[in-house]
Amino acid sequence: MMHRFNNGEEYWVLPGGGVEEGEDINQAVLRELQEETSIEANLKDNLLEFTDPRGDRHALFLCEYVSGEAQLHKDSVEANNKDKKQSYSPEWVEVGRIPELTIYPVEEKDFLTTYLKLG
To answer: What is the CA radius of gyration of the chain?
Structure first.
């Protein structure tokens, strides 16, 4: 997960971003994961899709870890951020901690909490 500090607020988000021209959502998921965390993975399942109240589309995928260390890719926007009021840190999080963390969007946290309980 991405551990974020943004203007004094601490929270967590899943790696992600937009679909670029010429790629499909599956390609975008793997690219964003690599860009933000330096992790390579294989897609397993599309678990959730929804549109948030702001109109942004979200898709949550189950991935299988292949390789890499959880760290910002040196060329990523996050690694090159100059705003001292914002920080990004990709970190492995034990699934048992998910219910206690502030995770945005809340729909993803709710889904993950239920998904993990069902095992």
So the answer is: 14
Mean pLDDT across 14-21: 93
**pTM (predicted TM-score):** 0.85
Structure tokens that stand for 81 in this block: 């951020």
Q: What single-letter amino acid sits at 89?
A: S
Tell me the C-alpha distance between 73 and 34, whole Å.
Answer: 7
pLDDT tens for each residue of 72-88: 877 777 877 777 888 88
- pLDDT, the chain, mean: 91
Residue 79 structure tokens: 């690694």
- Give per-residue burial for 21-57: e unless 16+ CB within 10 Å, then b: eeeeeeebbbebbbbbbbbebeeeeeebeeeeeeeee
Please give the span between the terminal C-alpha atoms of the chain, in angstroms, as a whole number: 19
Q: Is the peptide bond before 99 cis (omega within 30 degrees of 0)?
A: no
57-67 and 40-51 strand pairing:
antiparallel
Contact 61, 43 (CB under 8 A): yes
**DSSP category for residue 73:** -
